[in-house]
Write a structure and sequence with these properties.
With 381 residues, the protein is an alpha/beta fold. The chain has helices at 32-35, 37-52, 75-83, 103-116, 131-136, 144-163, 212-221, 232-248, 271-289, 299-307, 318-323, 332-345, 362-375; strands at residues 4-9, 56-59, 90-93, 96-97, 121-126, 169-170, 175-176, 181-182, 185-186, 203-206, 224-228, 259-267, 327-330, 351-355. Strands 1-2-3-5-10-11-12-14 form an eight-stranded parallel β-barrel, surrounded by six helices. Helix 3 (75-83) links the parallel strand 2 (56-59) and strand 3 (90-93). The chain is globular. The model has no long low-confidence stretch (mean pLDDT 96).
C-alpha cells in the first residue's frame, strides 16, 4: 500500500528559452551568481516538502555544470544546512556519485551528516554517467567495466566502514589501511570516526539498465532500488527482476518491496493543458540527457543505456512519455487512478517519488508539489 511520498530536485537553475527550439544545451553558460541559485531553490523546495508532508526531498550530486542543469556537488553538506532550516523532512542522496569520491571520505561525510541531522539524511549511491565529472576526478567512466568494478569495490569499503568497529580491505584499487608504521606499531586496521549513529544504514541505488549483475550486487548487499522516469513495461520487468535477485540471495520480498517508483508529473485541469505546460521542460531534459544515453522511455533507449551510446533527443516525445507512464500529465483524479492501479500491481510498494524535468521553474515545482499534496496524497492516507 502506498503511504510514503517523496520528491526529486536535480539542482537546475531558472533557464530561459527551454525546448528543442530554444538555446542549445552546450551554448548555455552562467555566472557563478546564477549557478548559486540552485541552493535558494533547494531551500524553497525543502520548506515546501516539509510543510506539505513529503517524507524525503531527494537531491542529485553532480559537478562542473556551467550550463546550469545539475548544480549541487555535495549532498551531505547541503543536507546539514537544510535539516536545520526544516522540522522533519528527510534529505535523500539521489545519488552520491561514488567514483568521484574516496570511499572513506564519503563514508565520513555521510556519518557526520547522519549525526548532525539526527538521522534525516538518506544514503544513496550511483556509478555516474557524466564523463566530464568522473574522469576529471581521475576515475573511469568511458570504460564502463572499469567504472563498475571500481564502484563495487568502493561500496564494499563503505559498508565495512559503516558496519564494523574496525576493518581492513585489500582489493584491486584500495589497500586499507596502508602497510605503514604508526606511533610505534604496524597499522593493520582502521576505524571510521565517526561511524553513523543510525544503524543499519539504509542505502538506495538507481536501477537504470536492469542488468543481472547490477541487481545481484544490490541484492547481495541489501541495497534498495529506485526506478524513476522509466517506461511502464521496463518498470514491471525490473520490479520482478529485483524480487528474483533478492530471492537468489535469501530474501523473500513482496513485489515492489524495498523499491521506490518514480515518475515526472504535471497536474492541470486537462491532459492537454498539462502536456502543454510540461512540453518545453520535457524537451530541455531530452536535450540534456539524450547525448549521455540516459533516457528510458522504451526498449531502444535502454539498449543505448546499456551500451553507453548517445540517443537522439527528438526520438523522445512527451506523447510517448505519457503513453508509457514515465510521465503523468492530467487532472489529479487521473493520477490517483493510476497510482491505485500501481498499488494493486505491486503489493509490496509503499513509496512513490514525483519529480520534474530539468528547466522546470521553481514556482511551478512548488505549485505542483502543493497540488499533489492536497489533491492526490489524501487518497492514500
Amino acid at each position: 500500500m502506498i503511504t510514503r511520498f517523496s520528491t526529486l530536485y536535480v539542482g537546475h537553475i531558472e533557464l530561459e528559452r527551454c525546448g528543442f527550439s530554444g538555446t542549445p544545451a552546450d551554448d548555455r553558460r552562467y555566472s557563478n551568481e546564477r549557478l548559486m541559485e540552485a541552493f535558494d531553490t533547494t531551500i524553497a523546495l525543502a520548506h515546501a516538502a516539509d510543510t506539505l508532508g513529503y517524507e524525503t526531498l531527494w537531491l542529485a550530486e553532480h559537478h562542473f555544470q556551467h550550463e546550469g542543469y545539475e548544480c549541487i556537488p555535495n549532498i551531505p553538506l547541503l543536507a546539514v544546512d537544510l535539516a536545520h532550516r526544516t522540522e522533519r523532512v528527510k534529505i535523500g542522496c539521489a545519488f552520491n556519485v561514488v567514483p568521484t569520491w574516496h570511499p572513506l571520505r564519503l563514508a565520513e561525510d555521510y556519518a557526520t551528516a547522519d549525526i548532525l541531522t539526527r538521522g534525516r539524511v538518506v544514503f544513496g549511491v550511483g556509478r555516474g554517467y557524466h564523463t566530464r565529472e568522473v574522469e576529471s576526478f581521475g576515475n573511469p567512466m568511458l570504460d564502463a567495466e572499469a567504472n563498475r568494478e571500481l564502484f563495487e569495490e568502493q561500496i564494499e569499503i563503505i559498508l565495512k566502514a559503516f558496519r564494523q568497529e574496525s576493518f581492513s580491505h585489500q582489493g584491486k584499487h584500495y589497500t586499507i589501511p596502508p602497510e605503514v608504521p604508526y606511533r610505534g606499531y604496524p597499522l593493520k586496521e582502521l576505524t571510521l570516526v565517526p561511524r553513523p549513529l543510525h544503524q543499519p544504514v539504509e542505502i538506495w541505488q538507481p536501477i537504470v539498465s536492469g542488468s543481472v549483475r547490477g541487481l545481484d550486487f544490490m541484492a547481495r548487499h541489501g541495497i534498495k532500488g529506485i526506478v524513476s522516469a522509466t517506461a511502464e513495461e521496463l518498470v514491471q520487468r525490473w520490479f520482478r527482476d529485483y524480487q528474483e535477485a533478492a530471492r537468489r540471495h535469501g530474501r523473500e520480498l513482496a513485489l515492489g518491496e524495498d523499491l521506490i517508483f518514480g515518475f515526472r508529473m504535471c497536474i492541470d485541469e486537462t491532459t492537454d493543458r498539462a502536456m502543454q505546460r510540461a512540453r518545453p521542460y520535457f524537451e530541455e531534459h531530452a536535450k540534456v540527457m539524450a547525448p549521455l544515453g540516459m533516457l528510458r522511455y522504451g526498449e531502444e533507449h535502454v539498449k543505448a543505456v546499456v551500451a553507453r551510446q548517445a540517443q537522439s533527443a527528438t526520438s523522445a516525445t512527451l506523447e510517448n512519455g505519457v503513453r508509457n507512464r514515465a510521465w503523468l500529465c492530467g487532472p489529479p483524479g487521473d493520477v490517483i487512478a493510476y497510482l491505485k492501479e500501481i498499488e494493486q500491481r505491486y503489493p509490496g510498494l509503499d513509496h512513490v517519488m514525483i519529480g520534474w524535468a530539468i528547466g522546470t521553474p521553481r514556482d511551478v515545482m512548488i505549485e505542483q508539489l502543493t497540488r499533489f499534496a492536497r489533491e492526490v496524497m489524501p487518497a492514500f492516507r
